[in-house]
């Protein structure tokens, strides 16, 4: 019969891939760019807007600081890109900032970076999707009431695409990313050419004034510096996702480091060009935007009902001739699409980092498992759930979410560059020829020294930005990101301690003692009634040839118990049937107490309990059969010296289960249950009552 669930799964994520096909998922640069760089490229759509939103708190008086703040952001991006090129070459195995910091600054510092990045990846999905929805609403304001549903729906769509595999997601996201780049660059060039020819386009908000926020009006001295620093920290959202390429080096085609470094350079050049162009065009067209539309002056009608378009939307309308032009809709569609797809950077970075942390035993091992399409499915689903909850809680509001953003990424930037400085110090301390190889030439050492200077500059600059971000955003919501990172750090330390403790407890210290045979093996067969499953379990228990074998039933109903005793005697087997009295009609407690008493009497004996079980094929059949065996097994598993064996009996409905030949590759590795065969001991799907 057709397995509907399996069919839907195949339609959603495609055919299962063999482990040997992993090399087919490696990426060329043209696909790696949209996969790993869509976040920093798409942040151009809102980075300029965030700078303007902060500066307009003081009205229009401080907008002349915009070029200087944008220049600082560009310089910072250049330093970070150059610094991470060094990381890509020095640590090509993937881990990015986490591997650099762990190797050079210690495990605790590495976990700080890991926790910060994991939180930031969740924020990347939330902010990118929310910003994309904002741009859709700018084009179609009637959709404003469906903001949260649209955002969560986009996260679900991204999850499905990424579950199909890295290469599949790259193909799906390549065209929108390149269309966005083309649309923005065409818009910028067209607008600046019109300005140079004396026909400067004007935005729809150019005629509006801005009433200063009373708290930020007439600022001077330190207060003005803090406002500019706050605008700078908001503009630094343009740098989010820059480190994703260093985390994903293993996903590139060979030569991996060279291709990853080239992709990072392309990303940096394109992102800087787009950011400079959008910011310049926003100043030329006199875009005026505020967090509260009622602070705009010159509005006709109800200010509260006025929906401000995003900066990108206003620029597109101004340059291409209005909100009904083809150019406007093209830019808006490409922007909305790429902002939603920018979350894909996190959908690749988060599972890769979680995989490395799982290998190092800081996260559950399930995050190391690959799915049918060789993607880290558990990590993808975990990221989607966290981002979806965040979007729901903050109602997909970009302004609210942005305050939680970029803190983690600058933490990783700073510690990573500091770790790279220590890396180069260690390399340069190596005496020429001391390792038995040819002496390093002067050019090699000069390149190392230049790399150290680049990373040192990056550490200082990103450290200053981290301080600025903390000072300007902490009380506005960034504290929540800090708390989340701290909780995650503590959780990962706890998981590692647990795994270490389990490994130490399970380690073989005295092989002879571990291999010592028990004095006797006592087998107990649980009997609820005399039927085929009971007899199969009896035969299976006898095949083990225990030193002592007895059947056990619980006298809940005296008449039924007598019938069982009579039938057992008629079988004529040489296995005694023991009846446990249960005046309060309990089943589990008498059995558990009796089995434990056998072990207490002879601690060197092993007691094996054999439980006949039904195997059914329909979910609702599980509800129709007594589940006491499950509870009984869970109680017995906590008792040392007790072995529990399930002996399955397949009912007709169990034939609905998948044939073994149709199991997906990797199913055993992922822990999916093997098909049930007769005369095989293992835990079956559902359980009939083992006793009465």
Automatic annotation (TrEMBL):
Keywords: Membrane, Transmembrane, Transmembrane helix. The keyword Membrane applies. Signal peptide: none annotated. The chain crosses the membrane at residues 65-84, 105-126, 146-166, 178-197, 217-239, 260-283, 329-353, 374-394, 400-421, 450-471, 477-495. It is found in: Membrane. InterPro entries: AA/rel_permease1, APC_K+_Transporter. It is a multi-pass membrane protein. It comes from Streptomyces roseoverticillatus. Its main location: membrane. Residues 653-692 are annotated as: Disordered. This is APC family permease. It comes from the Bacteria.
